[in-house]
């Protein structure tokens, strides 16, 4: 009897582990999902680029907003996936921005403004929007002008992860466009039997 109860308990625990999505993030007071590995900074873009480089990482900023179902999906389905999360943690310093927030931000051109004014100035209107910055601080440019890539929206796992890989490998400096890079990677995954569909 005890053995059968243990077996049922074990089977139920195993079922729940597979059936329930892994949600690593918590909801903050601002209504945004928080990852414990996101960087907390003074939001000085030049300092953040330098700090990321000192850690042998690249800087990525993520604009989100309260109630954004696509932001929630990004956290619950993508950033909770160990393969995605571990790659990003190892290679990027990620700073979260609130599309309608009032935290102070210092742009690369020296202008000090709020998160919501920065989003307008830089032209970001969708959430989530992930902005990838260069590994060196550019002279006199804004974040939007200096960005090496921008990913508006939450995509499937491989598109999402490939964008981070493409930026880390400085694909934007090479002849292979991101879409070609991504298509090549998907073909390699399928050939290896690791992928049915994106």
UniProtKB/TrEMBL annotation:
Gene3D superfamilies hit by this protein: Glutaredoxin
Alphabetical list of InterPro entries matching this protein: SoxW, Thioredoxin-like_fold, Thioredoxin-like_sf
Q: Does this entry carry the keyword Lipid biosynthesis? A: no
Q: What are the residue boundaries of the Thioredoxin-like fold domain, all occurrences included?
A: 52-136
Signal peptide start and end residues: 1-24
Keyword line: Signal
Q: What is this protein called?
A: Thioredoxin
Q: Which species?
A: Manganibacter manganicus
